[in-house]
């Protein structure tokens, strides 16, 4: 934020590195805590609900921050992110309090030598886990670049202005936020996790193919052709999120769940 205010690129990069250390660790810790609190036929729904909240955050970000950037500059836009991170810190502190109170004793007390993770345990991670990690790699390397570049696509190919492009940019996140808990519940009640992951992949392939072949918009007016791929990306991404993260604890031993989440996050 300070780098944004004083227009110092090196300082902004340093902040970005620190943000990455916190943000990626947050995702791993969050998934691990949810997998401890919710088990069996609750896990996918809990994961889907948790992830839907983060998707809503991305929507709000896409709607509000471009306007703040245009009206007040980069520092003001990053100030909002700084405030949100402070709120998240307070929420994390409250989470630690609730977690310890629920257990009735400290984390150190409940971890014995048998429960502690050993780096050698990775060799026991089975084929199913590594296939999950590989799907994670391919899904994120296709979905994220598409979402990050779709605003430019809407502006250059379909004649939207910056603000309207920022609103449409949030369509996949809105769809994902709404239906991720639903498909999480389906995964809990019906199983079929592998089939749901396959279905999400097929939907995403369809979305990217449609986006590739759609014609551009004439010079005058705006065209909403890209709304269909955005909708399909949201559906496919939501199904994948709802099922994938809840499947990881099923493929590794209990003491290795946090490390398994970390490996998938690094993928």
The amount of helix comes to: over 70%
CATH architectural grouping: Up-down Bundle
- Number of domain modules: 1
> Quick one: overall form?
globular
Averaged pLDDT: 82
Biggest sheet, open or closed, and with what strands and sense? none
Beta fraction: under 5%
Separation, N- and C-terminal Cα atoms: 28 Å
At the first level of CATH, the class is: Mainly Alpha
Task: Note the total helix count.
Answer: 11
What is the H-and-E element order? HHHHHHHHHHH
Please compute the radius of gyration using only Cα atoms.
20 Å
Helix/strand/pairing class, anyone? Answer: mainly alpha
Question: What is the number of strand segments?
Answer: 0
| CATH fold group | Growth Hormone, Chain: A
The low-confidence runs, each spanning 5 or more residues with pLDDT under 50, are none
Descriptive overview:
- The protein is 79% helix and 0% strand.
- The chain has eleven helices and no strands.
- It has helices spanning 2-6, 9-37, 43-72, 74-103, 107-110, 127-158, 162-169, 171-190, 193-213, 227-247, 257-266.
- The two termini are 28 Å apart.
Write the topology of this structure.
Elements: H1 2-6, H2 9-37, H3 43-72, H4 74-103, H5 107-110, H6 127-158, H7 162-169, H8 171-190, H9 193-213, H10 227-247, H11 257-266
Helix pairs in contact: 2-11, 3-4, 3-7, 3-8, 3-10, 6-7, 6-10, 6-11, 8-10, 9-10
Summed up:
The chain contains eleven helices and no strands. By secondary structure, the protein is mostly helical.
Key structural traits:
267 residues, mainly alpha, Growth Hormone, Chain: A, 0% strand, globular
């Amino acid at each position: 934020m300070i780098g944004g205010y004083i227009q110092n690129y090196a300082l902004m990069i340093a902040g970005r590195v620190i943000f990455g250390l916190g943000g990626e660790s947050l995702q791993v810790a969050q998934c691990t805590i949810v997998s401890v609190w919710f088990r069996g036929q609750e896990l996918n729904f809990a994961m889907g609900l948790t992830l839907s909240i983060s998707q809503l955050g991305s929507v709000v970000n896409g709607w509000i921050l471009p306007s703040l950037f245009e009206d007040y500059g980069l520092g003001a836009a990053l100030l909002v992110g700084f405030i949100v991170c402070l709120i998240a810190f307070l929420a994390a502190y409250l989470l630690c309090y609730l977690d310890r109170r629920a257990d009735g004793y400290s984390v150190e007390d409940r971890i014995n030598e048998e429960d502690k993770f050993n780096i050698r345990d990775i060799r026991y991670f089975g084929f199913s886990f590594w296939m999950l990690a590989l799907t994670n790699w391919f899904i994120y390397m296709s979905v994220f670049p598409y979402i990050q570049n779709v605003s430019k696509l809407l502006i250059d190919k379909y004649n939207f202005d910056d603000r309207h492009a920022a609103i449409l940019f949030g369509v996949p996140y809105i769809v994902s936020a709404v239906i991720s808990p639903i498909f999480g519940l389906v995964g809990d009640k019906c199983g079929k996790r592998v089939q749901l992951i396959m279905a999400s992949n097929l939907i995403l392939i369809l979305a990217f193919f449609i986006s590739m072949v759609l014609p551009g918009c004439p010079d005058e007016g705006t065209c909403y052709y890209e709304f269909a791929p955005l909708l399909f990306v949201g559906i496919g991404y939501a199904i994948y999120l709802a099922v994938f993260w809840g499947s990881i604890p099923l493929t590794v031993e209990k003491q290795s769940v946090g490390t398994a989440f970390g490996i998938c996050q690094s993928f």
